[in-house]
């Protein structure tokens, strides 16, 4: 696909209109419908509750894996056909869809420090919904299910860049998450991000774009092209959750990110677990060989921090150091409650 059809907000579905379907199984026959020469069906609905009930019946009674659909006031002029699952999720979770389209968001900051010195290296930018408050996981999970991940992912990048320009001094790094499936064509889909970097006077060298859900990536060549596009525009890249289900050596050697985050599963109680210690040491050794900087996330105790420091892990973040906040925590506010 050479264009970002999902980068614009989903159009609102009509409260009263028609559900148009392609590839519907013939064993499902609604009470009212019009069938066209190409085999597609038009099913009228008089309100959203009736539409939700119809979609639920289809979801439960038919195989919808190949089913395409559209919602329109005029059955002769559908806006666009999309997978049935997108329509189903957008109607069933219409309130969340509305938040993704036009909700109020903020970009929070979680500090990242040099483990040796304890000094601030940067902040991870994290999207937060505040009116109404919705968990980030629920938002992104709904965005993916409804095919709206490009919209939410782009908004998160925009807000991170704007917030950084106002609140973080030059030289301090920003880790900004992105979902690879939201970027169909890197050269096209990322132009808006690059323009915003210039517009807000942010130094590209201070930006580190972090792949999330790396273990679910099936097209490594596509991911590589995304990372190369970021780098070609002066930015750095990172992979998250190292160790959570994909080949450490193969992925690192193939993609050669500037940074790699170790999954918090390997950080919790690492000071007393020999298997985790072995894994951490191996990742650090491999990263050194490939000139990759390792970042340990999810540090919650002093013992974990001390062990990671002792084996040479350079960077870390976690609640021990500081929680995500709307205003970036200053150096003197880090390690709250920890005796230095």
TrEMBL record:
Under the heading InterPro entries, the entry gives: Cyclic-di-GMP_PDE-like, EAL_dom, EAL_sf
Do you know which SUPFAM superfamilies this protein is assigned to?
EAL domain-like
At the top level of its lineage, which domain of life is listed? Answer: Bacteria
Pfam families from the xrefs?
A: EAL (PF00563)
- Tell me which residues make up the EAL domain: 89-338
Q: What is this protein called?
A: EAL domain-containing protein
Q: Which organism is it from?
A: Metabacillus flavus
Give the lineage: Bacteria, Bacillati, Bacillota, Bacilli, Bacillales
């Amino acid at each position: 696909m050479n264009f970002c059809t999902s980068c614009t907000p989903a159009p609102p579905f009509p409260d009263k209109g028609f559900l148009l379907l392609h590839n519907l199984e013939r064993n499902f026959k609604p009470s009212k419908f019009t069938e066209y020469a190409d085999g597609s069906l038009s099913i009228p609905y008089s309100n959203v509750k009736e539409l939700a009930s119809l979609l639920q019946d289809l979801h439960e009674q038919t195989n919808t894996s190949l089913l395409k659909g559209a919602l329109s006031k005029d059955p002769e002029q559908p806006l666009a056909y999309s997978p049935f699952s997108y329509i189903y999720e957008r109607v069933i979770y219409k309130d969340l869809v509305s938040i993704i389209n036009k909700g109020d968001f903020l970009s929070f900051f979680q500090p990242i420090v040099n483990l040796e010195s304890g000094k601030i290296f940067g902040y991870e930018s994290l999207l937060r919904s505040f009116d109404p408050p919705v968990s980030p996981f629920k938002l992104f999970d709904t965005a993916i299910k409804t095919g709206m991940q490009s919209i939410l992912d782009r908004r998160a990048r925009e807000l991170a860049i704007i917030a950084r320009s106002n609140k973080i001094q030059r030289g301090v790094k920003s880790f900004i998450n992105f979902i690879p499936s939201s970027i169909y064509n890197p050269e096209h889909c990322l132009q808006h991000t690059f323009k915003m970097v210039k517009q807000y006077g942010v130094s590209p060298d201070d930006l580190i774009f972090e792949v999330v859900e790396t273990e679910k990536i099936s097209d490594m060549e596509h991911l590589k092209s995304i990372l190369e596009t970021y780098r070609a525009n002066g930015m750095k890249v990172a992979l998250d959750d190292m160790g959570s289900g994909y080949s450490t050596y193969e992925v690192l050697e193939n993609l050669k990110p500037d940074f790699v985050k170790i999954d918090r599963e390997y950080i919790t109680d690492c000071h007393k677990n020999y298997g985790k210690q072995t894994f951490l040491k191996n990742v650090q050794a491999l990263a050194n060989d490939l000139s990759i900087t390792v970042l340990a996330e999810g540090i919650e105790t002093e013992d974990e921090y001390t062990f990671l420091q002792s084996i040479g892990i350079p960077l870390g973040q976690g609640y021990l150091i500081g929680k995500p906040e709307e205003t970036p925590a200053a150096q003197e506010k880090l390690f709250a409650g920890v005796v230095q």
